[in-house]
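Hey, I'm writing a tutorial for new members on how sequence and structure tokens pair up, and I'd like a real worked example in the thread rather than a made-up one. If someone can provide the structure for the chain below, I'll link this post from the tutorial.
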Amino acid sequence: MRYDDPWYDALASGWGESGGAGGAVPIPEPAARPGRTEREDAAADVYLQVQRSAAFQEVRSRYRRFVVPACVAFFGWYVGYVVTATTAPGLMAQPVAGAVNVAMLAGLGQFLTTFLLTWAYARHARLRRDRAALELRWDTQELTRGIRGGAS
């Protein structure tokens, strides 16, 4: 077990607890990691530059403009179904056609809206984000390829 492991719990292993007749047992320092190279710093700068670019912000904005309202609407529909099922069992038990009642239709509606939302998300991504994201990815790879010396 290495001591620089972030999942290593020093106190659970006995390190740092009082040793009885002499105080605390010293906890060893983690091994020093070598600094990043200039190439790595330059590559990191490229990604920060891309993240701050207008093209990246536009892709993220298009994503948020779809996902946030869709999640709010779907979560509202789901909570509405659960609340109605628990607070108005008489309404949910109303027969619609034969043995099919309102609760069954609403439950099937949950499945239907899940599939519709998945289809709408995929369509939105294909039409409004994928091309811009691929162009952004290509530009980023070109910039980092130049930093790494043409090989990647």
